[in-house]
């Protein structure tokens, strides 16, 4: 199986000869799709969300089931997967720290983080913290310091931008 993008070609049979993808290989593949930033941290979170049985490897079945969910699943199924991505420790709740970790990972993935310690990095951190605070306040409906799956679903389903972006796959594919 071969995938092409602007960054080059990826031969999955060559990258994953044993039919499963381990995290290091997943990170290498992810880096080829996102060459302009540091994709390792975000790839780690995505890998954990794809590795449904927590085996440390993504089987072809897990890959297909997850991609099917993301591309053809209901809005609820897609949101449940997104919740799993942000619930970094898998305890069934998203903390502000977990949300911040994923937001920072996205910024690094997109190459939006300045070199550590620089004045620009401090500004980046302040902007990221503001973004995290705003999103966390919106999702933590009962303001108890954690976002449950129920709060996540309710908040996201009320947000037209989120539901439209999740439905985008329905019309594009």
From TrEMBL:
<feature type="domain" description="EF-hand">
    <location>
        <begin position="127"/>
        <end position="162"/>
    </location>
</feature>
<dbReference type="InterPro" id="IPR028846">
    <property type="entry name" value="Recoverin"/>
</dbReference>
<dbReference type="Pfam" id="PF13833">
    <property type="entry name" value="EF-hand_8"/>
</dbReference>
<dbReference type="InterPro" id="IPR011992">
    <property type="entry name" value="EF-hand-dom_pair"/>
</dbReference>
<feature type="domain" description="EF-hand">
    <location>
        <begin position="74"/>
        <end position="109"/>
    </location>
</feature>
<keyword id="KW-0479">Metal-binding</keyword>
<dbReference type="Pfam" id="PF13499">
    <property type="entry name" value="EF-hand_7"/>
</dbReference>
<feature type="domain" description="EF-hand">
    <location>
        <begin position="38"/>
        <end position="73"/>
    </location>
</feature>
<keyword id="KW-0106">Calcium</keyword>
<dbReference type="InterPro" id="IPR002048">
    <property type="entry name" value="EF_hand_dom"/>
</dbReference>
<dbReference type="GO" id="GO:0005509">
    <property type="term" value="F:calcium ion binding"/>
</dbReference>
<protein>
    <recommendedName>
        <fullName>EF-hand domain-containing protein</fullName>
    </recommendedName>
</protein>
<dbReference type="InterPro" id="IPR018247">
    <property type="entry name" value="EF_Hand_1_Ca_BS"/>
</dbReference>
<keyword id="KW-0677">Repeat</keyword>
């Amino acid at each position: 199986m071969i995938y092409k993008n602007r960054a080059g070609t990826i031969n999955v049979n060559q990258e994953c000869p044993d039919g499963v993808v381990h995290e290091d290989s997943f990170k290498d593949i992810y880096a080829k799709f996102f060459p302009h930033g540091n994709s390792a941290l975000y790839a780690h979170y995505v890998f954990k969300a794809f590795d449904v049985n927590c085996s440390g490897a993504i089987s072809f079945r897990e890959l297909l089931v997850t991609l099917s969910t993301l591309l053809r699943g209901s809005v609820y199924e897609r949101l449940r997967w997104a919740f799993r991505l942000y619930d970094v420790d898998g305890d069934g709740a998203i903390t502000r720290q977990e949300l911040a970790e994923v937001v920072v990972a996205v910024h690094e993935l997109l190459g939006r983080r300045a070199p550590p310690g620089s004045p620009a990095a401090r500004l980046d951190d302040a902007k990221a913290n503001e973004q995290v605070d705003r999103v966390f306040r919106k999702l933590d409906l009962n303001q108890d310091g954690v976002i449950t799956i129920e709060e996540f679903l309710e908040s996201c389903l009320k947000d037209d931008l989120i539901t439209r972006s999740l439905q985008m796959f329905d019309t594009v594919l």
